[in-house]
Amino acid sequence: MRDFSGRVAVVTGGASGVGKCLCADLARAGAHVAIADIDPARLEAVRTEVDKLGGGEVLGIACDVTKEASVRALADRVFDRFGTVHLLFNNAGVGLGEAQRKLWTLPLSDWRWGIDVNILGVVHGIAAFVPRMIEAGEEGVVINTSSTNGGLRSLPNTPIYAATKAAVTSISEVLHQQFLREGGKLRAAVLFPGPHTVNTAIMASGEVRPAEYVENEAQTKVAYRTMEDLVRTTGLKLQLTEPDEVSAFALDGVRAERFWLLPESGENDVLIAARTEQILARQDPPSAW
User: What's the pTM value of the predicted model, to 2 decimals?
Assistant: First the structure.
């Protein structure tokens, strides 16, 4: 898809971070943009901001991706207004206060929240939009946001997050193969924000955790206020990637019809190659990446 002008794009988690930048860049490219987010106040502020950038029409639609009915309602709104969708970014995601905690100590409510947002949010998006996109018979791309952490190699500091992003990569690969079998005009892509830790507020998502996923007050506390705090504590490289950089390479990758929306990075390439070699050699995973 070389040109986004006049195309219809839907972005979940669109009121902050990478999602917000995707919405802005799509609007600048002339697309109609449906911004979906769970936070109504922030959603309206971002909708107003993106609407000023020109391009097509901009909608702000409150949506909870953990709820199938909410995502289907989102699809109803978009298809009722535009009749079709060309770009679906299943981008909504959460980080949890799990860093430096043992996997076997994590409460099930933490797992449920991470799975419901990061995995089922993608599943709900595919189920609500893809059948109608196929029926419309137009060119389209479904882009799922994964992470190099879990999606390509798993860091021991974030067991839930890594597990959910591994699932997103797997779902995306299966979706790609099934689209090929369908023989239609839809493609799949999987986005790996980076190449370094992305400077977003995802680690503060515990503050807005729905009550149904809270067993005790400690679960709503923020593990790290900034991404700089996280990288210092966990020993990651103290270098950050800004969300607008991720949006730029993601949209370039969609234009180039790539499946793997993975930024060029010699460091990441070495780690991915090392992991592949260890698997082929039947070696145990390293104690740390």
Answer: 0.91
